Amino acid sequence: MRYLYTLLFYLIVPFILLRLLWRSRKSADYRKRWSERFGFAPKKLEKSIWVHAVSLGETIAATPLIKTLRATYPDYPIVVTNMTLTGSARAKLAFGDSVIHSYVPYDLPDAVSRFIDRIQPKIFIAIETELWPNLFSACKQKNIPIVLANARLSEKSARGYQSVAPLTKKMLSEISLLASQGTADAERFIKLGMPKEKIIITGNIKFDLELPKDLEEKSKTLREELGKEKHIWIAGSTHPGEEEIILAAHAEIRKKFPTALLILVPRHPERFDDVEKLCKEKNFSVVRRSRGEKCDDATAIYLSDTMGEMMLMYSVCDVAFVGGSFVSVGGHNMLEPAAVSKPVLTGPHLFNFAEISELLFSAGGMFKVTSANELAEKINTFFENKNMREEIGNRAYHVVKENSGALRKQLEGIKKFIS
């Protein structure tokens, strides 16, 4: 079955490259560093620790882990790979030249083998749900331990892997250690064929969120620039189909709070221009952070079009809506606003954060909305009651603090394979 998978992958590679070219119309970075995707790592190494975080969310979650590994094993170069442009940009921003970053090679036998030969990993650590048949097979053949850290598996993903059960069972058998976010995730992996004795349940390292040391100072400065007395809410990590709902809600909010400001943060940078155009079509006055433009009382939307500033944007708002939840993306990391004591709102699609969302809902730190009208009503209620905002924000914050500690447990498991 792996041979059939490999044949199909080779056949679709030209279409993958065409897609990258198509996306490069809006971001030239999609045309760069293609050699890395075929296994030509930026440097040849004699040994390394390889950490793979597919995209932005996984890279943020992996940041404390990578920093700890770097401090614990200074003699081992850390290689961080990503699949997406946003993940790569975040890795560069977080680590600079202290790690070697590269795009992960396509899951083709020659590309994977070439990459491994160039970086000589002592261990391969994949964040969350990254199962690649040829990569795992190559690591197994070369006696490289595979650790699936912060592992999660939604019911939807489990059904997908079950449809190729023999291939899935083979991949899972090649994993040395699976550090599961929760019991439900572990049970789904076991049903797919993961040996139970190789699983540890650690919790989610996203609770071990590392806040920038200068966050409070920067937040205070930006809040004054945006308008200290203004009511401000944020829609973070939004996707196509969500901005229309969010802008409709903002129009309703401004009927009651005419100077209310929306900080809008699209998930993907190539969409910044399109989102600005949409805002203007809806007759909103927009300023863009990257241009250094200033807000005044007429400004309705502050378009955050820079990378690596999501925590800063969450810090300055009064209420946070987390995107990827009005459309069937599965939600994004609602622990980020919770970690800075903000009341959190989401849409109904939360399958990527099922356990986290239940903890926040149960604690009363997060609320679900299903329409523009519900979103507007909820934000208006929060704007009217500062004490309520603070109380619910504190509930969200305590969920983060009470569930931290997964990072330490996962590091203990990883160290056994490096030492």
Task: Describe this entry's structure for a reader.
With 419 residues, the chain is an alpha/beta fold. The protein folds into 2 domains: 2-208 and 404-418, Rossmann fold (3-Layer(aba) Sandwich), CATH 3.40.50; 215-402, Rossmann fold. It has helices spanning 2-23, 34-37, 56-72, 85-95, 109-119, 133-141, 155-162, 165-173, 183-191, 215-226, 243-256, 272-281, 310-316, 335-339, 354-363, 372-384, 386-402, 406-418, and strands at 48-52, 78-82, 100-103, 121-127, 146-151, 177-180, 199-201, 232-238, 261-266, 286-288, 301-303, 319-322, 344-346, 366-368. The chain has a 7-stranded parallel β-sheet with strand order 3-2-1-4-5-6-7, with helices on both faces. It has a 7-stranded parallel β-sheet with strand order 10-11-9-8-12-13-14, sandwiched between helices. Strand 13, helix 15 (354-363) and strand 14 (366-368) form a beta-alpha-beta unit. Helix 3 packs parallel to helix 4. The two termini are 35 Å apart.
Essential attributes:
alpha/beta; Rossmann fold; 2 domains; globular
List segments where confidence is low: pLDDT < 50 over at least 5 consecutive residues. none
Taken together, the total number of domains comes to 2
Secondary structure: helix percent: 40-55%
Helical element count? 18
**Count of individual beta strands:** 14
For the largest beta-sheet, the strand count, sense and barrel status come to: 7 strands, parallel
**Computed CA radius of gyration, to the nearest angstrom:** 22 Å
**Strand order within the widest beta sheet:** 3-2-1-4-5-6-7
Measured between the Cα atoms of the first and last residue, the distance is 35 Å
CATH topology of the largest domain: Rossmann fold
Structural class: alpha/beta
**The CATH homology group name of the largest domain:** 3-Deoxy-D-manno-octulosonic-acid transferase, N-terminal domain
